[in-house]
Amino acid sequence: xxxxxxxxxxxxxxxxxxxCGFAMKYVNDLDEARNLVHEVFITVWEKFDSLPxxxxxxxxxxxxxxxxxxxxxxxxxxxxxxxxxxFIRAEETSSMETVELEREIxxxxxxxxxxxxxxxxxSRMEGLKYGEIAEKMGISVKTVEAQMSKALTVLRTHLSxxxxxxxxxxxx
Amino acid sequence: xxxxxxxxxxxxxxSLTGEATVEEQQELSTWVALQEENKKYYQKIKQTFDLSxxxxxxxxxxxxxxxxxxxxxxxxxxxxxxxxxxxxxFTPNKSSYPMWARMAAAVLLVVASGFVINYFLSRxxxxxxxxxxxxxxxxxxxxxxxxxxxxxxxxxxADYGTQARTVKLTGEGFFEVERNPQKPFVIExxxxxxxxxxxxxxxxxxxSRKELEVVVETGxxxxxxxxxxxxxxxxxxxxxxYQKEKKDLSSRENKDINFxxxxxxxLVFEENDLRSVIxxxxxxxxxxxxxxTEVPDTCVVTVTFDQQSLEAILNVLKTTLNLxxxxxxxxxxxxxxxx
Lengths: 172, 339
Known about the structure:
The structure holds 2 protein chains of 2 kinds. Chain A is mostly helical. Chain A contains 7 helices and no strands.
């Protein structure tokens, strides 16, 4: 079967920028992030055909970008001088948890099934009511409700580790 | 997950999103107050809800400002580069002929065999190039290049390139298309559509043939037929075939290294049997060669011809394969194959 470049183009146009933003949480440099995301897209394109048809591409791409970033950090780490590394560490410690939590949230949201994620984003990002989301997506309010609950419970499970950490910190 | 759990989850979601009624809100409060576990459960979901809200409000400002068209082009170029480096080395060496030489060659061909260009700026302003026994090189207003095989026709409108880049083809042509993602290059041929995302490819759409064929040399080409519920994306080295009667569209690896010989006049045979060699010669040289004798299986040909005349090629075949043939009124008949 021929690889479907059209489908791939849609994915690319939809996700390239958000993925760069995501990668920047690891590498802190736009050009670096751009290159890494390009590399990921090329690798994914090369095996696009062999991926199962029910693949959650969004989730797949986010995970691939994360892994690529981590590998990149691992491979370039040795080039950092110790002073510089110390400096960066001191600078970043304060925001470390937040950044990590953000990454985790991003990965978790993008691992949601497409419909579920859309419902969740309409609600949380655009503040739409159940009824408005139902109309927009052409599904019933009941389904919106079910997807919303599903999204929240799935996210909670994904984030539970981080959340319990925060709970401990807050003494809850 | 049981029903009651589902109900609770829905209640929590409704409460958090402001969808809950007063009664539902009360029901939830009662449930939360019932056990410490319930309270923790509720708080974790609320935390998730709040964090995701924060995440979304921060996210907008963090998406970098990039030109997505530029990035997509960059991606296409990269896969193209990768794919071109993988294909065989059989590509015409264009740089060895300067532009003026190629134009001169085209003019010579034109003079030699008599061709027709109908260029009429009437109401619909169609520009048309047509070949008879010759081949012809056409440069389109955007710099794209088309080589037309014999008995072929290329039509486009005078406003080509302003809105879209659409051409009509009958017969066969080799296209080298300038990249412009804003205006895809579209070829209408035999009721099918060939849409170009990349650069160079051959289209064979003679009405008399049962199959419409597209062979891609570099880049990526989309091949579709209205009414056929499928389209194929061809990359370098692929051959897309539309079987007109069966209405079947498919793609496979291109095995015919001589697909462009009509243009390059370069022929490569590698252990091809005599019949297929003759078929290729007939196509490339518009010749009329027939075989009127038994051809042994041992008649295989391995040879390369570059810019040779048909006469010279037949001479080579004659000596290597021990052929006898007669020539009468332009018809060549092989009467004996002694290989």
